[in-house]
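ARCHIVE RECORD
Type: protein–small molecule complex
Small molecule: nicotinamide-adenine-dinucleotide
Source of inputs: curated submission
Record status: active
Notes field left blank by submitter.
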Amino acid sequence: MQLEGKTIIITGAGSGVGRASAILFAEEGGNVVCADVNDEWAKETVRLVEQNGGNSIAVHCDVTSEADVTAAIDATVAEYGRLDVMYNNAGVATPRPGLRFEDHTVEDFDRLMSINLKGVFLGTKYAVLQFKKQSTPGSIVNTASVAGIVGWGGTVYGATKGGVIQLTRAVAVEAAPFDIRVNAVCPAGMPTTNFMDIPTDTATQAVAFEKVAQQHPLGRNITPEDVAAAALFFASDTARNVTGVVLPVDGG
Ligand code: NAD
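STRUCTURE (tokenized, with ligand):
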């Protein structure tokens, strides 16, 4: 029970990595606040957590909205008394498959920056303020991407994730004297159906999944559960002396 008695907000908890993390974190004893812009998906995650015997609530949260992020933290404190872990996971992919850098519109750029980087800025800022108000240790986990480390996986998307990585490292140093840890997980391409817009019919899906698997040296697909396991380590006290770490979960 690595998260016994802890309260965690997970953004983007309605699907993929966020949903897998919600289920795992609740299995580990945590109270999980599923924050997502898609209310139906967040509620379905809560249902899955509860079906598994865990504690969870859903809150509507568009991570680009300062008001939504602060309201999510307020709702968390009202329900569970405090916040222990902020998992800034919500993110969106490059809007059109194969989009070249020069073909991004300003609207594409603004949307990617707003959800993927400003969202992490807001979640981190208000979590730090909440941890300081509580005078308790805190853990912040961010989902970045290997696209933020190497020149692969989307240009503007990669820039947003590079920003998340640098924000992680810099805030980790600044917040360390307050026993606030900040770490990031960096998945490589995962065939999560919503993120990658993978077709739902099983034959086409199998081909698409295999194509993604072959991009990794280990030759198998990375799953949301793999990323959730890495995030759990950062979230828990097992990692009490780990901060500023950027961990690829990328199959090599
Ligand atoms: P997903 O599409 O399955 O889930 C993303 C969730 O974020 C959805 O529930 C969606 O509703 C939510 N969301 C989108 N915009 C939001 C907003 N403005 N406010 C709040 N919630 C919002 O994607 P996933 O694969 O689980 O991705 C999770 C994270 O992992 C993202 O940050 C993504 O960039 C990152 N990542 C994904 C991959 C991949 O290949 N799937 C690879 C590397 C990194």
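CURATOR ANNOTATION: DSSP finds eight helices and seven strands in the chain.
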